[in-house]
């Protein structure tokens, strides 16, 4: 095939040019994202039920919804959590479930359940979780002094949101911190009492005055007119002018009986930028959009906003495109330094400038053509696929160097140019194909990991497969064709001598080879001892998910664990922010209940999430220590988490599941075990290392008890007391003013006083018009009760989280503890998910090793020789571990990718060397002039000389291309540094392994019987 193609160089060249043009066109259309658009198999149902207790939400709302959703296809887990005024149900599906259909199914079932839910409950929100739901940036909208907060909210909702949504690539714009205008009516109790009236007279007058006649019309001859009541109200002045009839018959304007005003509705949550109340707009991109084009467009829009709306300040924060830019920058750096160092090393070893030029053409062309495969597999350019490309670039250079070196060696042996190109490629073709297949055999099976890990590896596996497949095509077709064209038209004579530099290197190799071959048993023993020693270093390394990145931002997630209002929560957060003022560059906070449509976490009035950006790491660490001390000293009840601000990776991989949770259900009752029974039981739990789960957390509350005996004595209906309490302590709705889609609620103004004083000073009227103090009929007491009610498929449960180092050690004791108390026990958590993932990973790696062995056995037609390649791998891994340990790096995702890169190059070198030894043995034996033993010795020696140059060149170019990252700074360098350490460590040891261990192991694996037979 190579001979056929080389005979038509122009056709081959034009074909590659056409492919590159198509690839360039495709590259411009490929979406650029931070992460692949992965469907997380979860759906969250959120419920907001104002003034409802956790028990009421569980019993009246969440329980019926759970029963209706339990038959969903593919549903694996269902967990619900009811808190004060809010409730959530998290549905987890099998990973093979079509989430588009599941989302539709959930919505349909919610619609069917609507009639069985409370009438005053809004429709539950259904949120589907996707990686594209992670916002790419946040826009801070800060009102300047004198600006109306409600007007700014309307500006954000009606104008800014729509303008940002019109930007190309934006899928959704979400807002938090909005303020709404309402009309409040504050009755004058003294005036009402003097006239023998109650609040109900005021409420009825407003409701009557705001009534509409829908669909009623009158006929006037040939015309027809629709009726509109003249008493319909629009403003507080309209409401104050409404007539109210007193029992005596006197008609009084409502303005003399109540104070009516516009007010800003009290919210359950706030957003702060610095210490100032503001709004935040989160921007979400479409899956097919290019992030590197979207963010600049967003920044341009903000500049226009600043000109158009001078009463508002705008700021862009938490720009997630920095991660993607870092990955793209690293790929560009790898290409640049890879090309420069490959040129330098090739020139050093080969002395001919034309060879580096050929690689300079093949490297970007291979990368560009790889994007065609991205297009056909519907992949986006993201951090995961880019890391796959970066992984394959090392082997791409490797293949090019090996092919060029072999062609050059064939020319040095005296073959004509055309024959040298053909035989140079044919000789290494099988070995290179095997080396690529072995790399894919190690990597591609990881796609079959369950969950998000497998989905992420899919993008990486396709990227690696793409660039390695294209690199083979380039190495076998384009490179020999370019070599042939360049050298056939060159008048410069071919220099078949070795340079002074390589001659010295060859002498050093010969010295080492003589030492090893002269003491084979000792050398083999040393290599075999290095395997367990190198692998044992892994026990000294810290294991983490992502490498430690020098982050300048931090978050504080705090739950005050007290029944405070949203306003008090905001005041506490402002106090914290002011205590650090001047220390941070930027700060923002989401306080209380969040208004985001896509927020799928807990929504509690008592919680806050603060974000800080600091100028230096030292300032950040000092501020975190100060915050921690302040919280412990001033708010001992608060539970909080301080740490680095999560990036998109953290948000994707973070799990809501506890690490090790012991759950139980009361088998005798379908409700939580009461506190008075539960607390003594918890003191008998088998371990003391535990924390209360949500269903055991407590909060203080006030419980009203109506005195039925007194109400019966004074002939006061229960409904009158209940309505009076609702008017006094709830946000009592009177009516809504509706005009052109805008709704302005009219509410009864809540008294701003302690509830004890309100009960003492408020009167209720009996059926005989006698009035009594409300406090006579209401008893109250303070008590602690459960903050949340938790449930799963089987019903209500309570739980605790075991924090012991080995939580599963006492699992049988946990079960016995529950059985003694007639509790149904289950143990769940991330601990078991991790164990399952490790089992899967071990199984997949075993399959990978078997595939590797089968491929090599087919290549070498031997069952023994593949073991030589397999045994080179732990030596390289040990070298990688050693360098990671020396530089204080951890075992993480990036260092694992580095191990795969390094092993791919090591396997490549070992395969080629064994293949060369096999061919030379056959050649020497066929000559009939030497014995089999001499043929073996000569083959081992000659193969080392032949493969020395490509092995050194591939290792040195890869190591030198990566070294600049070690000395770089910034987010991208921090991410890539563990990968670099792993590759440098592995290749340093791996090069020695390929040079000396492979011929040594080959010599030991060849039996005396086979030599005699030969």
TrEMBL record:
Pfam families: ACR_tran. Signal peptide: none annotated. The chain crosses the membrane at residues 12-30, 333-350, 357-377, 383-407, 428-449, 461-485, 522-541, 841-860, 867-887, 893-912, 951-973, 979-1004. The keyword Ribonucleoprotein does not apply. One of its GO terms (molecular function) is xenobiotic transmembrane transporter activity. Keywords: Membrane, Transmembrane, Transmembrane helix. The keyword NAD does not apply. SUPFAM superfamilies: Multidrug efflux transporter AcrB pore domain, PN1, PN2, PC1 and PC2 subdomains, Multidrug efflux transporter AcrB TolC docking domain, DN and DC subdomains, Multidrug efflux transporter AcrB transmembrane domain. One of its GO terms (cellular component) is plasma membrane. This is Multidrug efflux pump subunit AcrB.
């Amino acid at each position: 095939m190579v001979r056929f193609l080389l005979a038509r160089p122009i056709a081959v060249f034009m074909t590659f040019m056409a492919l590159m043009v198509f690839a360039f066109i495709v590259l411009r259309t490929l979406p650029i994202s931070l992460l692949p658009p992965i469907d997380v198999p979860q759906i969250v149902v959120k419920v907001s039920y104002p003034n409802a207790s956790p028990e009421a939400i569980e019993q009246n709302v969440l329980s019926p919804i759970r029963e209706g959703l339990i038959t969903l296809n593919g549903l694996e887990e269902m967990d619900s959590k009811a808190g004060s005024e809010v409730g959530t149900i998290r549905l987890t599906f099998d990973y093979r479930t079509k989430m588009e259909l599941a989302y539709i199914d959930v919505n349909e079932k919610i619609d069917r359940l609507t009639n069985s839910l409370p009438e005053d409950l809004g429709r539950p929100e259904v949120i589907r979780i996707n990686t594209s739901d992670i916002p790419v940036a946040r826009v801070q909208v800060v009102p300047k002094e004198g600006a109306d907060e409600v007007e700014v909210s309307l500006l954000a909702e009606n104008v800014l949101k729509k303008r940002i949504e019109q930007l190309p690539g934006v899928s959704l714009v979400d807002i938090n911190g909005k303020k709404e205008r309402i009309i409040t009516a504050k009755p004058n109790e003294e005036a009402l009492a003097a006239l023998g009236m109650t609040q109900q007279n005021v409420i009825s007058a407003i409701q009557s005055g705001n009534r509409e006649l829908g669909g009623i019309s009158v006929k006037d001859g040939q015309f027809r007119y629709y009726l509109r009541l003249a008493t319909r109200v629009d403003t507080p002045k309209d409401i104050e002018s409404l007539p109210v009839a007193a029992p005596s018959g006197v008609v009084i304007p409502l303005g003399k009986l109540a104070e009516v005003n516009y007010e800003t509705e009290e919210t359950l949550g706030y957003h702060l930028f610095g210490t100032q109340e503001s709004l935040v707009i989160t921007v979400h991109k479409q899956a097919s959009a290019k992030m590197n084009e979207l963010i600049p467009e967003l920044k341009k829009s903000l500049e226009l906003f600043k000109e158009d709306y001078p009463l508002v300040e705008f700021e862009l924060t938490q720009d997630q495109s920095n991660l993607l830019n870092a990955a793209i920058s690293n790929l560009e750096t790898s290409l640049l330094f890879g090309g420069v160092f490959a040129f330098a090393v090739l020139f050093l070893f080969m002395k001919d400038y034309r060879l580096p030029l050929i690689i300079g053409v093949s490297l970007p062309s291979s990368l560009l053509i790889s994007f065609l495969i991205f297009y056909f597999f519907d992949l986006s350019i993201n951090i995961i696929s880019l890391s796959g490309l970066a992984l394959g670039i090392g082997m791409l250079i490797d293949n090019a160097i090996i092919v060029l070196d072999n062609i050059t060696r064939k020319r040095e042996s005296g073959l004509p140019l055309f024959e040298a190109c053909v035989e140079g490629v044919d000789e290494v073709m099988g070995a290179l194909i095997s080396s690529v297949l072995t790399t894919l055999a190690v990597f591609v099976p990881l796609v079959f990991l369950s969950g998000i890990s497998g989905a992420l590896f899919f993008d990486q596996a396709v990227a690696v497969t793409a660039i390695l497949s294209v690199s083979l095509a380039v190495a076998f077709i384009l490179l020999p064709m370019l070599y042939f064209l360049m050298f056939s038209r060159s008048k410069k004579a071919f220099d078949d001598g070795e340079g002074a530099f390589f001659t010295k290197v060859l002498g050093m190799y010969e010295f080492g080879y003589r030492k090893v071959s002269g003491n084979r048993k000792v050398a083999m023993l040393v290599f075999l001892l290095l395997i367990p020693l190198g692998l044992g270093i892994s026990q000294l390394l810290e294991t983490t998910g992502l490498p430690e990145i020098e982050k300048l931002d931090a978050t504080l997630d705090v739950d005050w664990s007290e029944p405070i209002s949203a306003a008090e929560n905001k005041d506490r957060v402002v106090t914290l922010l002011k205590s650090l003022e001047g220390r941070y560059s930027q700060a923002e906070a989401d306080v209380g209940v969040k208004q985001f449509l896509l927020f799928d976490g807990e929504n509690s009035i008592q919680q806050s999430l603060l974000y800080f950006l600091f100028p230096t790491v030292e300032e950040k660490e000092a501020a975190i220590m100060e915050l921690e001390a302040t919280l412990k000293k001033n708010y001992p009840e608060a539970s909080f988490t301080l740490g680095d601000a999560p990036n998109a990776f953290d948000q994707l991989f973070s799990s809501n599941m506890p690490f090790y949770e012991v759950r139980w259900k009361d088998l005798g009752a379908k409700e939580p075990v009461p506190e008075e029974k539960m607390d003594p039981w918890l003191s008998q739990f088998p371990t003391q290392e535990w924390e209360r789960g949500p269903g055991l957390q407590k909060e203080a509350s006030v419980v009203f008890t109506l005195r039925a005996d007194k109400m019966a004595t004074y002939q006061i209906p229960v409904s009158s007391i209940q309505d009076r309490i609702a008017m006094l302590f709830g946000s009592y709705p009177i009516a809504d003013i509706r005009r052109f889609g805008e709704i302005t609620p009219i509410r009864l103004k809540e008294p701003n006083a302690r509830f004890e004083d309100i009960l003492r000073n408020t009167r209720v009227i009996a059926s005989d018009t006698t009035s009594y103090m409300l406090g006579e009929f209401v008893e109250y007491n303070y008590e602690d009760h459960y903050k949340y009610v938790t449930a799963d498929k089987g019903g209500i449960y309570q739980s605790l989280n075991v924090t012991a180092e080995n939580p599963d050690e006492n699992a049988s004791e946990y079960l016995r503890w529950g059985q003694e108390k007639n509790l149904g026990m289950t143990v769940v958590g991330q601990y078991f998910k991790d164990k399952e993932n490790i089992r899967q990973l071990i199984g997949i790696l075993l399959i990978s090793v078997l595939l590797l062995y089968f491929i090599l056995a087919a290549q070498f037609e031997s069952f023994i020789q593949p073991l030589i390649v397999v045994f080179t791998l732990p030596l390289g891994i040990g070298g990688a571990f050693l360098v990671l340990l020396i530089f204080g790096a951890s075992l993480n995702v990036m260092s694992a990718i580095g191990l795969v890169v390094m092993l791919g190059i090591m396997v490549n070198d070992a395969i080629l060397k064994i293949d060369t030894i096999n061919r030379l043995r056959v050649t020497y034996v066929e000559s009939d002039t030497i014995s089999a033993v001499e043929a073996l010795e000569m083959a081992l020696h000659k193969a080392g000389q032949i493969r020395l140059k490509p092995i050194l060149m591939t290792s040195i170019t890869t190591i030198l291309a990566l070294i600049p990252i070690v000395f770089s700074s910034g987010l991208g360098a921090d991410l890539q540094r563990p990968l670099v350490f792993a590759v440098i460590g592995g290749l340093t040891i791996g090069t020695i392994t390929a040079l000396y261990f492979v011929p040594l192991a080959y010599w030991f694996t060849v039996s005396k019987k086979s030599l005699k037979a030969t």
